[in-house]
Amino acid sequence: MRTSIATVCLSGTLEEKMNACAAAGFDGIEIFEQDLLVSPSSPEEIRDLAAGLGLTLDLFQPFRDFEGVTEDLLAENLYRAEAKFELMNRLGTDTMLVCSNVATATIDDDVLAAAQLRRLGELAARYGIRLAYEALAWGRYVNDFEHAQRIVDLADHPNVGTCLDSFHILSRRWDPAGIEKIPAEKIFFVQLADAPELSMDVLSWSRHYRVFPGEGAFDLTTFMAHLVRSGYDGPVSLEIFNDVFRQTAEERTAVDAMRSLIWLEERTSVFLAEQDAEANAYPMKLATLPAVAEPTGFNFAEVKAEETADVEELLFQLGFRCEGRHRSKPVQLWSAGSARMIINQQQARGLMPGISALGLDVQDPLAAASRAVQLKALPVSRRSQADEAVLQAVSAPDSTEIFLCESTPDGIVAWAEEFGAPQETAAGSGPDPAGLITHIDHINLSQPWQHFDEAVLFYESTLSLAPRASQEVPSPMGLVRSQVMRNDDGTVRLALNIAPLALEQGGPRGGSDYPQHVAFACTDVVALARQAQQRGLEFLPVPPNYYEDLRARFRLDGNLLETLRSLNLLYDRDADGEFLHFYTATVGNVFFEVVERRSGYDGYGAPNAPVRLAAQYARSRSAGSVRSAGRAGRR
Ligand SMILES: O=C(O)c1ccc(O)c(O)c1
Ligand SMILES: [Mg+2]
């Protein structure tokens, strides 16, 4: 599959955009006219730059409001077009996108529109240029790709063909199956865009909210399958108008874009192999990736910090014990049940405690890492001694390191042998007296708002975690969007939260400075909370108003309510079961949660999230802002 991307997707100058597209591995680009117009480079220089970067210039666009007009206006439009054809000859681009008329069309007549396009085709032919006619979803008379195709058929000129854009087709809910009926040689160009489900006028939706395939709600796999079956074998190009991508670093956006296409290509290939007997016979050849099963559990989570005493103390109070220090590095292993926590002081100068890595159990670490790297994840290199386990790891978009570990059904992990014997630490080393904690239930990672879609795509495409319906949680610092990514049986659950900006309010900075947490599952949260209380754990305080509301909502009996209140426990219930949980105070940028799931409760206590966020906010303000502490700590 030939990959391409429109320059309008990215921030920066035309030259910067082209460099980013080449670095991300695209075969070609669509030149958006505006980008050339404002560039100091001549068309010849852009042509040479593209050649030097190994990029083909697949399309020049857009040419607007051409057809369905009066004779006078047609003459104007042909004049305008000819100037662009000359420009395209200088650029060395042979395909021009012609959008269906949205503004100046006055005549609703397919025969006339076709005749006018034919005249444009005759003119284009003299310059060796092909016209790809695209039905914009908001075109005045032509807004349906099959309608555009009828006009192309009527125009009946070898230089007049069609441009298919998944946004215009799927946003209007036109059936993409019709693509299979278009002769392949008449499909001159294909653009792909995804979009979230929003109800708004289609033009605003298109100009501001398009996202890369896999980041929205459109079924692009089926769309692609129809395209492949049509026999089309030209460029498959991303055309994403998105307010955020236009202002974020272009190299990074280009990688996100490439990842989305590689993943779509794979899914299409798998889909066609399942559906069609002769899937390999289509002209378009689709690459695949190493298939990997979804991860089967958390192997560990890691907190990195210069000063680790606070984290050690929290873990001790929760019943973890220190299993020892690494034999060659300033790293400790703490465990409770099969929950393993690494405390890492390597390269941690000036760092507040924060989640820096997590390990996932996978069937085949090498295959999983290879898949992730083919999806443009950056491999992580950690120095290790010759006799130490070589761990596969990649960096997630928020720079959390994701380790791909050999599954350990027996609970024995090879790398743990590199740690010495259990020993006394500053906090002590008492074992969890009742063995209440069983495993890591979920990990909550905050994401910079501008990279949220990228993160969701990353975890889904590289690790086969599936997104659940997202939620919005009100907090004093803003509305926090929360997106759970998980495996099927719930043994791996990542909650991605958008970190509010919060600068104006003196809260923590967005991104990785925003508190993140690890939640541990336990068999008896009340007993564990009592033990932790005796060991001096600082709980996140829960306001009395919350318990008033609990009583009203759930008719909880007085004893239970009193127990919850005295231990700062939170409670939720759904059709399946009950959920009891508590949070520790935050140290640096990390805190812990302990949860007890009773009889099949599968959520995360969503109604309690605003209570937690408000309590953390209040605490960070009264304890002197986390922000200033964070700043000082980072220097
Ligand atoms: O929003 C637009 O005007 C516009 C322009 C060119 C395209 O290819 C497109 O899909 C939309
Ligand atoms: Mg388009």
From TrEMBL:
<dbReference type="Pfam" id="PF01261">
    <property type="entry name" value="AP_endonuc_2"/>
</dbReference>
<dbReference type="GO" id="GO:0046565">
    <property type="term" value="F:3-dehydroshikimate dehydratase activity"/>
</dbReference>
<protein>
    <recommendedName>
        <fullName>3-dehydroshikimate dehydratase</fullName>
        <ecNumber>4.2.1.118</ecNumber>
    </recommendedName>
</protein>
<dbReference type="InterPro" id="IPR036237">
    <property type="entry name" value="Xyl_isomerase-like_sf"/>
</dbReference>
<dbReference type="InterPro" id="IPR004360">
    <property type="entry name" value="Glyas_Fos-R_dOase_dom"/>
</dbReference>
<keyword id="KW-0413">Isomerase</keyword>
<feature type="domain" description="VOC">
    <location>
        <begin position="439"/>
        <end position="585"/>
    </location>
</feature>
<dbReference type="InterPro" id="IPR050312">
    <property type="entry name" value="IolE/XylAMocC-like"/>
</dbReference>
<dbReference type="Pfam" id="PF00903">
    <property type="entry name" value="Glyoxalase"/>
</dbReference>
<comment type="function">
    <text>Catalyzes the conversion of 3-dehydroshikimate to protocatechuate (3,4-dihydroxybenzoate), a common intermediate of quinate and shikimate degradation pathways.</text>
</comment>
<keyword id="KW-0456">Lyase</keyword>
<feature type="binding site">
    <location>
        <position position="191"/>
    </location>
    <ligand>
        <name>a divalent metal cation</name>
    </ligand>
</feature>
<feature type="binding site">
    <location>
        <position position="442"/>
    </location>
    <ligand>
        <name>Mg(2+)</name>
    </ligand>
</feature>
<keyword id="KW-0479">Metal-binding</keyword>
<dbReference type="InterPro" id="IPR013022">
    <property type="entry name" value="Xyl_isomerase-like_TIM-brl"/>
</dbReference>
<feature type="binding site">
    <location>
        <position position="517"/>
    </location>
    <ligand>
        <name>Mg(2+)</name>
    </ligand>
</feature>
<comment type="similarity">
    <text>Belongs to the bacterial two-domain DSD family.</text>
</comment>
<keyword id="KW-0119">Carbohydrate metabolism</keyword>
<feature type="binding site">
    <location>
        <position position="165"/>
    </location>
    <ligand>
        <name>a divalent metal cation</name>
    </ligand>
</feature>
<dbReference type="InterPro" id="IPR043700">
    <property type="entry name" value="DSD"/>
</dbReference>
<dbReference type="InterPro" id="IPR037523">
    <property type="entry name" value="VOC_core"/>
</dbReference>
<dbReference type="Pfam" id="PF14696">
    <property type="entry name" value="Glyoxalase_5"/>
</dbReference>
<comment type="pathway">
    <text>Aromatic compound metabolism; 3,4-dihydroxybenzoate biosynthesis.</text>
</comment>
<dbReference type="InterPro" id="IPR029068">
    <property type="entry name" value="Glyas_Bleomycin-R_OHBP_Dase"/>
</dbReference>
<feature type="binding site">
    <location>
        <position position="593"/>
    </location>
    <ligand>
        <name>Mg(2+)</name>
    </ligand>
</feature>
<feature type="binding site">
    <location>
        <position position="134"/>
    </location>
    <ligand>
        <name>a divalent metal cation</name>
    </ligand>
</feature>
<dbReference type="GO" id="GO:0046279">
    <property type="term" value="P:3,4-dihydroxybenzoate biosynthetic process"/>
</dbReference>
<feature type="binding site">
    <location>
        <position position="239"/>
    </location>
    <ligand>
        <name>a divalent metal cation</name>
    </ligand>
</feature>
<dbReference type="GO" id="GO:0046872">
    <property type="term" value="F:metal ion binding"/>
</dbReference>
<dbReference type="GO" id="GO:0016853">
    <property type="term" value="F:isomerase activity"/>
</dbReference>
